């Protein structure tokens, strides 16, 4: 299962490339396109979720503490400070590499065991009680990777479409799309 961690490292590294190609004002600039977001808001959202899943992979899972998608701590420094975002991104890449190395060296394989987790999330704005979904840490890591690619597509619209800055060909494009396009 370390392959999934290796993919996470590559996906996070794509973001690192984009962040290294923009300045602080571009990072926090509000997009002209609805919903008038910013690169920084997308980055903060993604890094918070990667941090939650990687944290669960880094320590023994406690079933009495489900992953709560509605109460992910928001790192506001990442949202307003490009350097803070780069530092956090670098730390998450190193943490992911460390977990992958532990998996490769035969250490405790949380992903291989498909550790079950409970996910709490509200399904709609009116709901008072969270929906509880059973999942695995491997599935949640896969989801956060795919979720990142979705947000990268939105970031790409801002960076390329509004700022005129080129990004890598794979940034914001899913693997199946890339495979299909390579066969054309």
TrEMBL record:
Q: Which Pfam families did the record assign?
A: DinB_2 (PF12867)
Give residue ranges for domain DinB-like: 10-155
The identity of this protein, by name, is: DinB-like domain-containing protein
Source organism per entry reads Wallemia hederae
Its lineage reads: Eukaryota, Fungi, Dikarya, Basidiomycota, Wallemiomycotina
């Amino acid at each position: 299962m370390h392959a999934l961690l290796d993919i996470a490292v590559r996906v996070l590294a794509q973001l690192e490339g984009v962040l290294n190609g923009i300045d602080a004002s571009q990072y926090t600039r509000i997009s002209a396109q609805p919903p008038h977001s910013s690169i920084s808001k997308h980055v903060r959202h993604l890094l918070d979720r990667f941090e939650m899943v990687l944290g669960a992979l880094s320590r023994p899972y406690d079933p009495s503490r489900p992953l709560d998608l509605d109460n992910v701590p928001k790192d506001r420094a990442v949202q307003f400070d490009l350097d803070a975002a780069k530092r956090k991104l670098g730390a998450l890449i190193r943490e992911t590499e460390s977990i992958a190395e532990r998996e490769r060296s035969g250490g405790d394989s949380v992903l291989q065991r498909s550790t079950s987790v409970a996910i709490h999330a509200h399904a709609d704005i009116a709901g008072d009680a969270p929906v509880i979904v059973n999942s695995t840490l491997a599935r949640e890591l896969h989801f956060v990777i795919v979720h990142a690619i979705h947000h990268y597509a939105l970031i790409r619209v801002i960076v390329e479409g509004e700022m005129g800055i080129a990004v890598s060909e794979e940034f914001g494009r899913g693997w199946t799309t890339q495979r299909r396009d390579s066969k054309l």
